[in-house]
Amino acid sequence: MSLALTAALALFTSAATTPPASETVVRPGESLAQLAARTLGSEGAGPELLAFNHLDGAPKAGTRVQVPGPERARAVAAIGSARSAIGQAPAGSARTEAEARLTEAESLLARARYAEAAAQADGAWKLLADAREERSHFAVAVEPDGRTRVAVREGVPVRVEAQGRTRAVRAGETLTVIRGETPGTPQLETPTGAPAEPPILISPEPGLKLALEPAPGGLGPVRFAWKPVQDATGYVLDLAGPRTQSIRTTQPLVTVPGLPAGRYRWTVRAMQGDGSLGPPATRAVQLVPGRIKLEVKETPWQ
Amino acid sequence: MALCLSLFVCAPACRRDAKAPPAPAPKQSVRATLAEVKGSVSVKRSTGDEWLAAVNGTALYDDDKLRTERGGSAELRFPSGTVVVVSEDTLLGIAETRAAPGRPQADVTVLRGAVDATLDRPANQSITVGTPAATVRAGREIVFQ
């Protein structure tokens, strides 16, 4: 009975820890490298695929092979992080030891020992992070159009991922990501040219109810104006309301021919040479039809 | 022997006649606590539709939303020690994640505005800030899902 209990527990343990693996069939004429590229995304991962399936040689066409699941993805991610950390670490004993652990992690990955590979890679990463012993401090700002600006003030680099691509941003660097695009190249922050103050808005006046004539697109024209900001290379005006719109301009003035009636929040930011934006200034305005229809009824008054 | 083993394995699942007690309501763990609340700051629970005024000590759970108006700000303090300062005119959500056991993870989604995050011990902390354009990660990387 104790044997049965052991077997049952082993079965439970295996079911609980083994990641779900998918299956594929080797295509006619498909080489091991091609199979590895199709299933694991790398031609060089053939030996790993063989190890995962306990095969000695390349499988023939029609053979069903197991493809590793999330456990492999975790190991690959951990190795990627460790590699990135080593690439940014200064030379020293911590880096040397981390490199050795990374080599071991890659070797374990090639033998399809994913949990051990992840642990080794994580250990390499932690070794470097512990060696630094400095805090991490960064800022994230999201514009109304979703554009994201990441600025790392101090500490270890942060990772910015968009559209499947990851960039490391180091202390003193900034990175702007436009929605739907991959991250660009981090830029060194240039505090000297950075507009520290938000633009001073001029018109429309705060909370103004603006009566306007009908115009193409709604009511208009609507004129937005603000005082120039020193060292600014341009401005971004963001409108939020019945119509949401982002307008770039080089002048401290924008005239919109027509906007649907309603309440709007308008925000202006000054742009720096590297494309990053300064602090915002925001106001509200309400647009109402200005043409009042007069109906004069007959009265007994003469 | 095989029969014995299969009976053993199936026993819990095959006991259909026994009525299981009703499952207790899932108890959510606190993801973050608010501090340094200034100006107009409000919270919307994942289970509600109302924006409620936030005060120092307000606990935030998975999928709760936090909003600061102009002139408002607050600090999100996570159990890991990570601190996120929320600037004015910001809208963010507390993201639902499962971190490694014993290693709490701080996750937020910023839809509008700005946040400032500080990790005092990045070797043992991690944070993910999601935005409409990107995902920003700092600190320890591995997240077990």
Structure description:
The complex is a heterodimer of chains A (302) and B (145). Chain A is of the alpha+beta class and 302 residues long. The model of chain A is unreliable at 1-19 (pLDDT under 50). The longest helix of chain A has 19 residues, at 70-88. Chain A is elongated, with a radius of gyration of 30 Å. Chain A has helices spanning 2-17, 32-40, 46-52, 70-88, 93-110, 114-132; strands at 22-25, 64-67, 136-142, 148-154, 158-162, 165-169, 173-177, 187-188, 201-203, 208-215, 218-220, 222-226, 234-240, 245-249, 253-256, 262-271, 281-289. Chain A folds into four domains: 18-68, Membrane-bound Lytic Murein Transglycosylase D, Chain A (Roll), CATH 3.10.350; 71-132; 137-189, no CATH class; 201-289, Sandwich (Immunoglobulin-like), CATH 2.60.40.10. Residues 1-25 of chain B have low confidence and may be disordered. Chain B has one helix and eleven strands. Chain B has one domain. In chain B, strand 10 and strand 11 form a beta hairpin. Chain B is globular, with a radius of gyration of 20 Å. Chain B has one helix at residues 2-14; strands spanning 32-38, 41-44, 51-53, 59-60, 65-68, 73-77, 83-86, 90-94, 106-119, 126-130, 135-139. Chain B has 145 residues and is mostly beta strands. The two termini of chain B are 37 Å apart. In chain B, strands 1, 2, 3, 4, 5, 6, 7, 8, 9, 10 and 11 form an eleven-stranded mixed beta sheet that branches. Chains A and B meet through helix 1, helix 4, helix 6, strand 3 and strand 5 of A and helix 1, strand 9 and strand 11 of B.
CATH architecture of the largest domain in chain A: Sandwich
Number of strands of chain A: 17
Please state the overall shape of chain A, judged from the principal axes of the Cα atoms. Answer: elongated
Total helices of chain B: the number is: 1
Taking the alpha carbons of the first and last residues of chain B, their distance comes to 37 Å
- What's the mean pLDDT score of chain B? 77
How large is the count of helical segments of chain A? Answer: 6
- The radius of gyration computed from the alpha-carbon positions of chain A, rounded to a whole number of angstroms, is 30 Å
Instruction: Please state the structural category of chain A.
Output: alpha+beta
Mean pLDDT of chain A: 81
* Helix content estimate of chain B: under 10%
Basic shape of chain B: globular
Unreliable parts of chain A: 1-19
Domain count of chain A: 4
CATH superfamily of the largest domain in chain A: Immunoglobulins
**Which residues of chain B sit in consecutive blocks of at least 5 with pLDDT less than 50?**
1-25
For the largest beta-sheet of chain A, the strand count, sense and barrel status come to:
6 strands, mixed
* Beta content of chain A: 25-35%
Topology as H/E string of chain A?
HEHHEHHHEEEEEEEEEEEEEEE
